[in-house]
Amino acid sequence: MAASRKRRILLGILGVVVVLGAGLGYLVWDGLFRREAPRFDDIREFMKYGSVGQEVTAGIPFKVWQVLPEVCADKLPAGADPAKGYAAFGFVYEDGKDIPIGITKSRIGFDRISLSCAACHNSHYRARPEDAPTYFLSGTDTSFYGQRYFNFLFACANDARFAPATLLPAMEKHGLGTFESLLFRFLIIPKMKDELLKVEKRLSWWYDLPEAGPGRWIAFNDLKYHFAKQPRDGSIGNPDIPTMFNLQLRENIKTYHWDGFTDSLDKAMQNAAVGAGADEPAIPRDDLNRLRDWWLTQPAPPYPFPVDQTLAAQGKQVWEAAGCAGCHAIGRPTAGRVIPIEEIGTDRHRYDLITPGTVEGYNREAKAMYGWPQAWFIRKTEGYVAVLLDAVWLRAPYLHNGSVPTLADLLKPPAERPAVFYRGYDLYDPVHVGYVSTGPEAEKQFRYDTALPGNGNQGHAYGVDLPAEEKTALIEYLKTL
Ligand code: HEC
Ligand code: HEC
User: Fold this and answer.
1) pLDDT at 330
2) 391 lines ligand 1 (CB under 6 A)
3) Per-residue confidence (pLDDT) for residue 18, from 0 to 100
4) Rounded to the nearest whole angstrom, what is the distance from the C-alpha of residue 477 to the centroid of ligand 1?
5) Would you tell me how many other CB atoms lie within 10 Å of the CB of residue 269?
6) Rounded CA gap, 404 and 414, in Å?
7) CA atoms of 270 and 276, how far apart (whole Å)
8) Which ligand has the minimum distance to the alpha carbon of residue 287?
9) Cα–Cα distances in angstroms (integers) from residue 338 to residues 59, 125, 236, 261, 407, in the given order
10) Which positions of the chain have pLDDT values less than 70?
């Protein structure tokens, strides 16, 4: 009798422990692992806020991230308003959203954020200073200070304030449950600090290089050092962001990226997803396919200011006679090819960054890590792609490193192109065709010095000796592309 009573009590206790354990297990699972990624049927919304699966491995806890501009206000760029969140890095918030365009938020236990494709592939311009900006998703971004954004996160992670005692009170203002608070205090905040410091170490090579500035992104150093496991060698690849309009025109040419180192849009997109930190099983194929199909057919936006059609027709003749068409005209069999680096003569740092060893290392590593079925992902080419020039008006500053502010400047002999100008101001200059890059407003943005390594504005000396009126006509024609 006594024995069976004892057993009943023991079972009872065990039952309570199991129920409590299961409850706790559920809470831990719910608080750390439950996955919920928002679904975006509209592909434009997907581009702005959609995930390519990177939060699983490279997500930043949203509730901590949200308070960092306030907690580490002194680490924001000079003059930035902490109440405006991440706007200081060129991010734009749409009404009613707690994340800006270019940030994706998914729940894996807790909300985690990362960059979406629109952080970089999104452009805007204004016709007059008092106008609201007009946006073109998939255009070339000119205002996102990607490197400064990460440097801010790293600086904050290195600071004594990056601790539960300072972060939790700030987070509570936005709502924080009791159990959630415990998870943040003991697990998430310490882990987030560790992870940010690890990423900083992985990217620490960039502290030794000239700053990329807004609208450029050091895309492939990490591919070289982290994925291909090559030693750090001071390489600089500070490329501008390409536009993604009407890509079907390029499907036959098979040159993606500035040096044409991939031959298909699929590969280029997979590289982007992996570069963002996504592991293969988490990459949402359907979403990437939808995005690909949109990029293949999305028309290039027409020039938004008046065009003198008679002058443009004269310009078309110059375009043919000066040889531009042979390298750039849509539909011409010789357009969109890689032009050898010695012949094009533009800054060679981005080209030299990728060596045969990088190609070998990355292709091997990518296959092993992700089990990708393709025979290869990247290749070494001989130079830079003579890109198709649709929507060229929206691609300023020009050349792969964004070193020439306007089309008028590109048609000057290299020695006469601006040696210093400012990137990141979005007021349009329809006379020279590009963004306003001098004057007090532009000078609040990023000073681009062409004398720094990787920033050279030399080469592409085509059309530079044309008579002034032919240059004017040619520029008028370029507006129509
Ligand atoms: C942090 C900035 C950044 C983000 C975020 C980003 N990209 Fe890019 N992307 C670039 C840069 C810079 C290049 C050009 C790199 C080069 O060729 O040197 C590029 C090039 C590309 C290209 C090749 C385009 C061409 O014309 O050859 C594709 C395709 C692409 N990105 C897809 C994506 C996708 C898909 C996403 C979202 C998963 C994404 N990118 C997110 C910066 C970014
Ligand atoms: C021999 C082939 C060739 C000829 C001829 C040529 N280009 Fe180019 N063009 C290129 C290459 C290659 C690039 C990319 C170079 C780089 O980014 O470093 C380029 C880039 C450009 C860009 C910058 C595009 C961007 O997205 O930033 C413009 C604009 C341009 N060319 C206009 C012209 C005009 C106008 C002419 C005629 C006066 C011309 N090109 C003649 C090969 C050529």
Assistant:
1) 86
2) no
3) 60
4) 28
5) 21
6) 9
7) 10
8) 1
9) 36, 30, 20, 10, 21
10) 1-3, 9-31, 33
